[in-house]
Amino acid sequence: MLELDAITAGYDPRTPVFRDASLTVGPGEAVGLLGPSGCGKSTLARVAALLHRPDAGRVVVDGRQVRGWRHRAPRELRTAIGVVFQQPRLSADPRLRLRDLIAEPLRATGRRDEAGTRTPELAATVGLTDDLLGRRPHEVSDGQLQRACLARALSLRPRWLVCDEMTAMLDASTTAALVAAVETYRREHGAGLLAVGHDRVLLERWCDRTVQWADCAPGGV
After folding, report:
1. How many helices (H) and strands (E) does the chain have?
2. Helices within the chain (DSSP H only)
3. Is beta strand 2-9 parallel, antiparallel or unpaired with respect to 209-212?
4. CA 85 from chain center: how many Å?
5. DSSP character for 159?
6. CA 23, CA 16: separation in Å to the nearest integer?
């Protein structure tokens, strides 16, 4: 279970972005979090991905309460969660070729030897052709780069996925391809999903259930 319990978070403790947000995602479950721009969804997604320390509340991953954040979180918790952000160009190192971008988590966790076989497999999973793997971010489209970012998120076989407006900048065909790739991964690995967005139609078609931001964070700001 991925549990967010009474989370208050922001970037200045005196003026939090939101208060008392609670949400749970079960193993293998896809939960959509629906809300307008600026309400705090992305901040909550970063908390769920262990990238942002909340000011109050608890995050529990597989029965274990999180005590550290970012690089201070235990490796087994950090690697249990894969995350895809809205803007791939802000989350990808512009110096890396796509093959190195995808393999980045493997190398960072001492699994460099797996990169040679895993990278082509992951690229195929998200619909990237071999000729694209030698290109850098500025040489590919937003959709192609987001495919690489999804492959990177799947590289360590996470038990939980956090997709924060993953398809907001993409056309319909790329959106469908990435959602299909996520669903194939979830079906094969039993991973849970938190999909954050403002597109009600997409979330309701994609997810097992959809939670309104007002129900998740009744405390507001």
Report:
1. 9, 9
2. 41-48, 75-78, 88-91, 98-108, 115-126, 142-154, 172-189, 200-206, 213-216
3. unpaired
4. 6
5. S
6. 18
Q: Are 97 and 78 in contact (CB under 8 A)?
A: no
Q: How many angstroms from the chain centroid is the CA of residue 206?
A: 15
Tens of pLDDT along 122-173? 999 999 999 999 999 999 999 999 999 999 999 999 999 999 999 998 999 9
Of the candidates 88, 93, 87, 66, the one whose C-alpha atom is nearest the C-alpha of residue 78 is: 66
Question: What pLDDT does 219 receive?
Answer: 66
CA 1, 217, 44, 14 torsion-angle sign? negative
81: which 2 tokens?
């969660």
Closest CA to 174 of 202, 209, 138, 195: 202
Q: What are phi and psi of 58, to 5 degrees?
A: -125, 145
The mean pLDDT of 176-185, rounded to a whole number, is: 96
Q: Identify the H or E element spanning 181.
A: helix 172-189
Which amino acid, 96? L
- Cα atoms found within 13 Å of the Cα of residue 101, Cβ hemisphere only: 27
For residue 120, what is the enclosing H or E element? helix 115-126
Q: Give the Cα separation of 54 and 27 in Å (integer).
A: 23
Mean pLDDT of the chain, nearest integer: 93
Residue spans of beta strands (DSSP E) within 77-178: 81-84, 160-164
Distance, CA of 29 to CA of 1 (rounded, Å): 9
Q: For residue 190, what is the enclosing H or E element?
A: none
**pTM of the entire predicted model:** 0.93
Q: Tell me, what DSSP letter sits at residue 55?
A: S
